[in-house]
Structure formats: C-alpha cells, structure tokens
Fold F-box domain-containing protein.
Amino acid sequence: MAPIYNLDHNVLWSILNTITDCFPIEPKSNSSIYSPLTTLRHVSQVCGDWRDLSLHSSLLWGKVVDLAALEMCTEKWRQEVIHRTGDSLLWIQGPVTRLSAPFFFSVLNEHWGRIERISVSVNTYTGRGVELAQNWGPLLLRSPHLRQICISHPQNLSSISENSLLFANNAPLLRICGISNLRFDPQSPWLVNLRSLSMKTGLSILEMLGALKSTRVLQYLDITLRLDNPATVSTIPKIDLPYLHTFRIHGLHEECSPFLKSITPASGCSFKFWIRLKPSSHLADTDVSAMNRRLVRFSHNYLREHAPQQISLQYYKNAVLRFEVDKAESHYLRLLTELGYVGSLAPLFQEFCQSSYFSSVKRLEIELEGTMSPGYVMSLVKFVIRLPNITVLSSNTATLWSLLNNPISETIVPFLTVETVILKDLKSPREVVLPALKILLHAGAPLSTLDLTEIPSNNLIAIDCLDELKGLRVKWKDTEGVKESVCGTGFPKTLLTGDI
C-alpha cells in the first residue's frame, strides 16, 4: 500500500479544509477547470478510509456548492451534495444558467438560513412578477449567518424589495456585499459592519451617499452608476472612510462628481475612476476645474504613500485619456476619463509637474493618438521632464517625436537616463525614428536597446538607416522567436526587405 494511504487523518482533513476554503469575492460568469467540489468527490473515492473521513465532514461539503461543477450533473448527484452538507453552513458559487437555475433557487428557498457565503453571476432570465418574487424572496428574510453576498444580475430586482427590507434589516455578520439592480434601505443596520461594498444602480445618488455615511469601517468600495436621469444633489454630505484602501467608480461625470467630492478615504487609498460624458456633451470650465481638483486630491493621497515604479499614459482619438500608476500591482492608481476636449486635463498634469512623487519611476508607457493641442503637448513634455530616472520608455513613433521635437526639448531634453526604447509601431524610420534616437544619444542618454518585438515582423522594413547608430542593439520578433542585431554590423537582409 502506498504511504499516502497512511496519511494522518488530521493532516488530510487540514489539506481538504484548505482546498475547500477557496471562494471568490466577485461572481464568476463561467465555469472553471478547477473545482473544490470535484476534488472532494475524488478524495471520497480513493479508499474506504478516506471516504469515511470525507462523508463525515459535512463542514467541507457545505463549502463546495459549486453551480458550475453541478450544472451538467444529474439531479440525484446535486441532491446528494446537499445531503452531505448535513446542517453545516453553505457556500454557494458559480453561474446561474438556464440549466442550474432550478437547483439554485431550490437551495436558496429551502436553505436560506444556512447560507454563509454566496457569490453568483446570473446569466439567465429569472422571471417577473410573482415568479421573480418567489425565486428571490429569501433575500427579504433574516440572514443570521450571512457573511458574504455577491450577486451579479442583469434584471432589475428592485421590485421584490419595494415594500420590504433587504435581509429584513437583520444581517449582523455581513461583511462583504455586492448587489446589482436591487434596492435596500440606506439606513440599514447591517451597513455598519461592512468591509466591502459593491453597488450597481438600485439606489439614487443621494441614497447611496446616505448609505455610505453608515459604512465607517469600509475597506473596499466599487460603484457602477447607470442612472437614466441622475438627479442633481444640492447638498453633498461629508463622508469620512478612514479604512478605505480601494475605491472604484464608473459612471457619467455628473454621477461620479458627488462621490469624488464627498468621500475622504484612508491615506494611500488606491483608486480606479472611469468617468464618462454624455454623447455630444461638454463640461463647463467650472466643472473642469472642480474635477481636476478632485482628481488631484485622490492622486496626491495615493502617491504620498506609494512611490510609483511605472506610469502608463494613453490618449485616444475619441478624447479618452487613460493614466495608470503601477498598473502591474494589485494596489494602484487608474484614471480613465472621457472629458471632451482632453486639453482640459492639462491642469492635472501641471499639478503633477510640481510634485516630486514620480522621481522613483523607472518605466514610462506613453501613447498619443489623434490631434493634440500644442498647449497639451507642452504640459506633457513638462510632466515627463519631471521623471528623472526613466530607464524604459515605451511609445509609438508619433508620440516619441512629439516629446523630443518641440520648443522645450530644444533646451531641455527629456529621458536622459533611458536605456531601452520600446516602439509600438514603425512609421518613417529615416525621417522620425532615426532623428529621435539621435537626439537622445547626442544628449548623453545611455540608450543601448531599441525593442521592436511588439511590431509585426512584416512591418519591419527600411530600417537600414539605423545601422549608423553604432553599438545600439535592435531586437525584433519573427516566427522563430526574438532576434537581435547590433547597429554598425549590418542588419539581416531578410529584415530589410520584409521577407521574414
């Protein structure tokens, strides 16, 4: 007999407990290859000894009610899983589809009082009127054990709670709440203990602000606003959230503004803002000024605690600006704005230019697509000059030329510490790329590598002009992988002709 069969029961149970502890915070809309339920089922089939251990561990079975893993199973096996949970608390996760919906709603209605965690994404129609109320009715009942509820639902569920209170206003253990298209009382007592709150529509802006005033220990906040006619909020309350470390908001400018004005998060709070305009609308100068002040406030609050290592800045033709700091980290700053004429954000970068927050940045990704006003380009040039330690610069050809060929760079050349330039395209190698690289080299930048690996190999033609930059390594990619040549030694003929 293999030694694994003699594994101590306490050790085996500890391993299984760790496996079944995996539970998503955000609902998953599709199935996963890995499922703790499948693992637990296989363990119960290894040998009689392991089967006895697993079957007598109702706690473990209660944590693996996985709708994705049960979707294609027989009804007999689904009921067997529920039977094996005994009287233990239930964790339910996965997509609610046409096939899994009957089983899901039967568990929801028959075992609501036992549910401790639920994280589901509804991908099917769940009825209307009486049927909708019957399916989702348990949400209006007391929830003595509920610690987490995350339900993503495309339908408007507010009708089921119009005349009743969500959780009967009784969910004392609730810590994580993520609900969409569902109303709740902004004064609900269960808000007080929340650590994580995700809201999508359901309430008015004023009601949402009122609810947030009760969430003093909130650590994570995600708001998606899709209101048909957002009401003007005349009086905006001051909301202090001293433990808030992550803040996300997505919506129209007039929807987002009250939240950005009212909320004061913890020092170092990371944020992801996606602020849009209504089609064909523009902001008044006063609105632009107010928005810039709020964005600067949140940015300074983050940057004071986090020395950034990389910045990504992209401007798109439809006037969308994306500004990200340390996007590879779990805790980062992301600003995605659609504020009409992008030059209106110039004051934001002027404010950044006056700070020393970016002295630690090593990598800069910057791409500008479309026509930029001279004033905005100058603001960006002043901004990048304040990045004294950039060693990796990733850009497209036009942006690189704009930043190196302007009145400011005639006297102050940016990127004097850059070692690697990564190009996203290759337009006008002789007229643009070569002069841009010469500017850097003649200014004393320690440029050693030109990285063209992100450009399709059939676009890498007519770059023999770069051969005069003796010693510069040029990297590219073909069907065989990454290749490189050293300028001054001649480029491969296939690279020059495009016959790769």
Summary: Residues 496-500 have pLDDT under 50 and may be disordered. The longest helix spans residues 285-303.
